[in-house]
Write a structure and sequence with these properties.
mainly beta; seven-stranded mixed β-sheet; about 120 residues
Length: about 120
């Protein structure tokens, strides 16, 4: 399984960014995927995840209502639409999957390379 993220960058507080993640080498029926992040000096933490068929979704309390996760039907690409960004959202964001169909808040074994998101004025 290969996992590739894109879409990070520098944004001002209150701004928006959309992260994308594409996975290959997975089962034809699709699989659950999620996002984690790691800020400097902190442990990696769960952000959001989505089931193979797009529902249900799970969110960390810190991003609920601000970072909807989506997965268009029939594909193995997910999106994290980040809005109302805060400086504390600054981190490297990693896409993650265990290759299975069921979403959770736990880390899977397949990771992308990470994409930097910096929120600063």
């Amino acid at each position: 399984v290969q996992v590739v993220e894109s879409g990070g960058g520098l944004v001002q507080p209150g701004g928006s960014l959309r992260l994308s993640c594409a996975a290959s080498g997975v089962t034809p029926s699709g699989h659950a995927m999620g996002w984690f992040r790691q800020a400097p000096g902190k442990e990696r933490e769960f952000v959001a995840s989505i089931n193979w068929d797009g529902s249900p979704t799970y969110y960390a309390d810190s991003v609920k209502g601000r970072f909807p996760i989506s997965k268009p039907s029939g594909g193995n690409t997910i999106y994290l639409q980040m809005s109302s960004l805060k400086p504390e959202d600054t981190a490297v964001y990693y896409c993650n999957t265990d290759g299975g169909p069921i979403a959770s808040t736990k880390e899977g074994i397949y990771w992308g390379q990470g994409t930097q998101v910096t929120v600063s004025s």
